[in-house]
Amino acid sequence: MDRGAWYLVGPLVGMVIVGLLWATNRPLGALGGYVDVQAWARKPTERIGWRAFFLGGVVLGGLVASLVAGGPHPTFSYELHGITGLAPQSALLITAGVLMGYGGRTAGGCTSGHGLSGSALASPASWVA
Fold it and tell me: CA 43 to CA 11: how far, in whole Å?
């Protein structure tokens, strides 16, 4: 499966970001979907936000792309300083995920939100993050 050409995909992503900002007055970012799902899980009577569906689409899109490419092939190829074995590699990935989540919440957004939307809008918080 080939990637889209940068000169096509870049402007399309830019149009999505501008359109989303115009329609919802919210920046594009994956962490917002996670926050929406987490809030809904705490209070299921509330209506789930559109960002949760965006996050679900990212996950589902990745799964569909892997199936089209011949199926998912999960591996533990994240080796750091000779760490091998299922348990140590799993612990490494879980720890990294927790730290990334904590960092994203502390920074007020994830790299997609700050990098794509916030930086383009010249947000000082995004430039610092």
Answer: 38
For the chain, the three-class secondary structure string (H helix, E strand, C coil) is CCCCCHHHHHHHHHHHHHHHHHHHCCCCCHHHHHHHHHHHHHCCCCCCCHHHHHHHHHHHHHHHHHHHCCCCCCCCCCCCCCCCCHHHHHHHHHHHHHHHHHHHHHCCCCHHHHHHHHCCCCCHHHHHC
Q: What is the pLDDT of residues 26-61, one digit of tens each?
A: 888 788 888 888 888 988 887 888 888 988 998 899
Q: Has this prediction a pTM greater than 0.70? A: no
**At CB < 8 A and 24+ separation, what contacts does 13-22 make?**
13/116, 14/120, 17/116, 17/117, 17/120, 21/117, 21/121
Q: Which residues of the chain have pLDDT under 70?
A: 1, 76-80
